[in-house]
Amino acid sequence: MTVDKAIIEQAQEKASELRASAEYRENIDFWHQAWNMCTKPYTRMPDLEYLPWIPERLHAAAASRVLDLGCGSGWLSVYLSREGFKVTGIDVAGHALELGKQWAAMEDLQIQFDAGDLGDLPYPDGSFDAVVANSIIEHLPLSLALVAVAKLKTVLALGGTFVGCFDKVGTGPGQYYKLDDGTQIYTDKSRKGMMLRYFSDNELKDLFNGWTIEELKTLDSGSRFVVAHT
Fold it and tell me: CA nearest 33: which of 117, 92, 115, 107?
């Protein structure tokens, strides 16, 4: 399924309405509460097939300054800092950022952790050479994802690079209702308020309209690994 032209044209207005809604506030509250349950950094790296591909693509693009979207407690920020990149991580959950700072301090890594919403990135134009987004844009409804990815083009330097993974989501158990664009909003106790949306391959291509998509690779898990350039 591709994105209707009218949806693209109205994305900014719809995204503003969404960010002011009770549903979105509940989504933000979910992430605060989820991270507040963690008392110390979990310092093991996930076993992901594509993990080593991320620094490979960044080095190939001669990237130095990297923004880690929805960094959580900072595992990808730490991984890329170990690889020599100058990393900034951004997340909406303040406690997750504190855990990331603790982990970085344990390894004497210089990582900047900023509090902020992916729907309204607080960075000047050209601040970064690359953006990484691991399984995070799936937590944005369609209009907000369109606005967020468009904003990435401004915070990236000319010729900047996006490297990300989009998971195959929304097929497991759970209680939820759906927004008009198919975004699931969970109502069960453990995930109450969390937003989750599956993006088809065609929708991913529409998200990155105006970019040069270098890779759009489907993994055995059903996740899609994406590399694109401005």
Answer: 92
User: Could you give the strand order of the β-sheet that contains 184-186, starting from the edge strand earlier in sequence?
Assistant: 176-178, 184-186, 195-196
Q: What band does 4 get if pLDDT is binned at 50, 70 and 90?
A: low
Domains of the chain by start residue, with CATH: 5-42+61-166+201-229 (3.40.50.150)
The pLDDT of residue 22 is 94
Size (the chain), residues? 230
Question: Whose structure tokens read 């000047």?
Answer: 124
pLDDT bucket at 118, cuts 50 / 70 / 90: confident
Q: How far is CA 72 from CA 14, 21, 106, 181, 207, in A?
A: 26, 23, 17, 26, 23
pTM across the whole model: 0.94
Bridge-based pairing of strands 156-166 and 224-229 is antiparallel
| Residues 197/181, Cβ–Cβ less than 8 Å | yes
